[in-house]
Amino acid sequence: MKRYSQSIKALMLTAALALPSMAFAAEPAMMKDGMMVDHKGMTVYTFDKDAGGKSMCNDDCAKNWPPMMAPAGAKAEGKWSVIKRDDGTSQYAYDGKPLYTFVNDKKPGDMVGDKMKDVWHVITNTGPKK
Predict the structure, then answer these.
(1) Rounded to an integer, what distance in angstroms lies between the CA atom of residue 7 and that of residue 34?
(2) Is-contact 129 56, C-beta < 8 A?
(3) Rounded distance, CA 106 to CA 108, Å?
(4) Which of 22, 23, 52, 127 is most buried, judged by most C-beta within 10 A?
């Protein structure tokens, strides 16, 4: 019985140590119903004025179009990358395009910001607008 108890404890310890790395490996957004959404189901956008993997949406722009912030230590993987913002924080990018949500999208599935001022675009199954 003691041996069984030790095995369970070892298994639980291994699972507890692996859990943070498994959560870290999750992609910051996913495709749902043909468009990219964050983990809350909110629509993800790109901004045409961003270039060279740099966000041009700062200050008041970032209040209306919150950047998809990346935690410290986030790493690039596949089409995902992490860029440095002007304020020194990190933001996720997909296929080289920095990612944002929109404050006027109130519930999952809203896409109020799509094509706004013809510079904001939802990421669809075909990827970000080039």
Answers:
(1) 45
(2) no
(3) 7
(4) 127
Q: What is the pTM of this model?
A: 0.78
Give per-residue pLDDT as tens, 43-83: 999 999 999 999 999 999 999 999 999 998 999 999 999 99
Cα separation values, 33 from 24, 63, 69, 90, 128, Å: 24, 27, 23, 28, 15
Alpha carbons within 13 A on the beta-carbon side of 59: 1
CA distance 57 to 39: 22
Contacting residues for 83 by C-beta, under 8 A, at least 6 apart:
53, 54, 55, 90, 91, 92, 93, 98
Output the CA torsion sign for 120, 126, 127, 130.
negative
CB 44 within 8 A of CB 101: yes
pLDDT over threshold 60, residue 21: no
Instruction: Tell me the per-residue pLDDT of 35-48, one tens digit each, with 9 for 90 and over.
Output: 999 999 999 999 99
- What's the DSSP call for residue 117? G
